[in-house]
Amino acid sequence: MTDNSTPSEDEGDKGIDRRLLFGGGLIGAAAAAAVSGGLIGATASSAASAPLPSESDLATHLNQADHLFKLTASPRKNFAGGYLQGADEQSFPILRGQHGSVYFVRLEVGGYREPHWHPTAWELNFVISGRAKWTSLGTHPDGTYNNMTFVAEPGDLVFAPQGHLHYFENDRTDAPLEVLVFFNSSAIEPYDDIGLVAAVNAMPRDVLAAALGVPESVLAAIPKEVKPIVIGHRR
């Protein structure tokens, strides 16, 4: 596998989350196509006012764009516990307007994906190699949270519904974990998710302490700096 390392998590290129800006459906797809077609970095208002492409324009794009993408030879986003490589609207232009992206994720021994949820997308995970320990927390219509923990092995699929809190980690101590992750979103990972550290820091410490039933001083060690931690490492 080629090592084309790119800047770490502190130097990410956020891009624009088109699903959040424009919503789903035809308007969302058309606006996403307009943004990726040359308005990257523009404001939401200027992108929203762009003319809608016709079906023939989209068809022409699909006929002309490259259909092949070397995913595991593409630039990596490196983190403490591993790395990811992605195919999205920016890196693989044929995905423009398709509301789809895919990522190759490698977790080293001790690596984990920060607990998080996606407000605008579901994800489908295929385990290529290694063993993944998963936890998913859903809703509670019957009064009990739908909390599941399980192990996924090579050849297994794991589905994370939109909005459900989830995480996975490398469950082996002698080998890395490799997972292929598909999203029904064109946003660049990790900028279409809400991480646990960010969620905790979004609440006042006194409110958080009251909700947890602990003294506020207990929370002093929680880091206040919020970073897009995608892949961490257990120390």
From TrEMBL:
The chain crosses the membrane at residues 20-42. InterPro entries: Cupin_1, Germin_Mn-BS, RmlC-like_jellyroll, RmlC_Cupin_sf, Seed_Storage-Functional, TAT_signal. Keywords: Membrane, Transmembrane, Transmembrane helix. GO terms for molecular function: manganese ion binding. Residues 69-220 form the Cupin type-1 domain. Gene3D superfamilies: Jelly Rolls. This is Oxalate decarboxylase. It comes from Nocardia pseudobrasiliensis.
